[in-house]
Write a structure and sequence with these properties.
216 residues, single chain, Rossmann fold, 5 strands, alpha/beta
Length: 216
């Protein structure tokens, strides 16, 4: 990265905001440009500061994190929201994803290195690099957004590997194809299932019957 990635921290706890600020600014190339303590303040700060990334809590007064994430995603589609929360409730994960969040980390289940990796993934627009932090929540969330979709045999194979937490490079090695081909298949999977992120792909239960055709 050739420029500083600008981060906005939104959390109602002064202590948590301070901890996140310290963690963010310990990562080379990242800087906290602002803080907010409520959902409404977070939306206002995002519009005023135009950060690259928002670290968003969920449970806050004066507009919760879900509503704030939805508004930021609508107003500023280039801004990527990473939810950082104490909640491990499946419904909160589901609501955050559908509101436009690009990642979901649960306090106590990630360390500074994993937060840094998540922010780098968002900064590089490569959700495939997102650390798999919320796997347990994902398993329980049952996002049935693809219940009527049909996938090819190869796409279904790749989706299952994604759901096991495999990265694109690992998937390419596992099934003997180019990494760029894996990315193309994943883009096709996203399109067919009507989803936009790897976390949603991990959470999706596909009810359709895979098409019978060539492996690729």
């Amino acid at each position: 990265m050739n420029r500083v990635i600008r981060v906005l921290v939104v959390d109602d706890s002064f202590i948590v905001r301070g901890g996140l600020r310290k963690a963010v600014e310990a990562v080379p190339g990242f800087s906290v440009v602002g803080e907010a303590s409520t959902g409404r303040e977070g939306v206002g700060a995002a519009n005023a500061l135009r950060p690259d990334i928002v670290l968003m809590d969920l449970r806050m007064p004066d507009g919760d994190g879900i509503a704030a994430t939805r508004q930021i995603s609508s107003d500023l589609p280039a801004v990527r929201t990473l939810v950082v929360t104490w909640s491990d409730a499946p419904e909160h994960l589901r609501d955050a994803l559908f509101a436009g969040a690009k990642g979901y980390l649960v306090h106590g289940r990630f360390d500074p290195a994993e937060l840094a990796a998540a922010m780098r993934a968002l900064a590089q627009d490569d959700i495939s690099m997102m650390p798999i932090i919320a796997t347990g929540i994902i398993a329980a969330s049952d996002l049935d957004v693809g219940s009527h979709a049909t996938l090819t045999k190869r796409e279904l194979e790749i989706l299952r590997l994604v759901q096991r937490g495999r990265r694109n490079r690992e998937i390419a090695h596992d099934i003997g194809i180019e990494e760029k081909t894996v990315k193309n298949h994943i883009n096709s999977i996203y399109s067919k299932l009507g989803i936009a992120s790897r976390i949603e792909a991990m959470a999706t239960r596909v009810g359709g019957t895979p098409q019978v055709g060539p492996a690729d």
